[in-house]
C-alpha cells in the first residue's frame, strides 16, 4: 500500500468507526449540481440542487432492471441511500430522474448517468460513491463565460467494469488535470487512530464556518479530531512540506491572508463539518484528497479548492450551523 491508500483507509476507518452501525449495511452517496453554464462540468458558478430526484437502477446479467430506488437531494444537494446487507451494486447507475416539488429553473435536462463506485468495504459495511450528477437549465446563464474552447457534451465513455477496487478519488468535483508528480517518499507508519467518542454523527444537515469551530463552547464537537493534532499527521506529507510539522488543527483555523492559509483553514473546517454531519457534502476522505490535490497544483487550484470548501462550510447560504453549547 502506498501512503495515499493508507491515508484513504485510515480516514475511512475513522469515518466508519464513528458511525454506530451494528448491522450489515450499504450506503450510496452523491451530489447533484446545477450546471448553470451547461459546460458538462462543475465550475464555480454551479451550485448544489436540492429537491432533485435521483434514481438508482441496477441491471441483472441479462440487462433487465432488477432493482431501483429513488431518493431526493437535501439542501446540500446530497442524497444518501441505505440498503440492508451488502449487495453488489457495481452494476448500478445513478441518474437525475426528476425535480420533485422544487420548481427549479435548473431542471431542463439531466446529465449522463453515473456508475456507482465502490469506495470501501469493511466490517459488513459498504460505501459507494457516485460522481456528481448534473442538471441543466434550458439555456446557459447570461453571466457564463463565453466558451473559448467549447467543452464537448459530457458523453461518458463506458468504463471498464474492472476497477471496482477501493479507491480514494472523491465523488464530488472534477479537477483539471494536474501535472504528474515525482514519486513520493513512503510515509512512515501511520499513527494510531484516535479513540472514538460514543457520540454518533448528527444525522442532520449542518455546516459551520470556521469561526464557530474556535468557540470554546463548542469544544465537545471536536469529536474524533484533537485540536492539538498536527496538520502534518492528518493531511499527510504534502501538507507537512507546505505548513511545517508544528502546525496544529487549531492553529490552522486561525490562518488567513494568503491562499494556502485560507485553504488549510477551510479544509480543517470542512473536516470538522464532515465528522459532525453525515450529510455534509464532503466525506472526511474527500476533504483530505481535495486538499492534497490542490496543494499539488497551482495557486489557482489552491484558491478554487479553498473557495469550494468555504462555500460548503457556509452551508451555501441555506444550511444552518447546528451546534449547541457543550455542557
Ligand atoms: C457561528 O458563527 C457566526 C459568525 O461568527 C455567528 O453569526 C453564528 O451565530 C454562529 N453560530 C452558532 C451556532 O454559534
TrEMBL record:
Residues 146-175 are annotated as: Disordered. This is Uncharacterized protein. Keywords: Signal. InterPro entries: Protodermal_1 (IPR039923). Residues 1-24 form the signal peptide. Residues 158-172 have a biased composition (Low complexity).
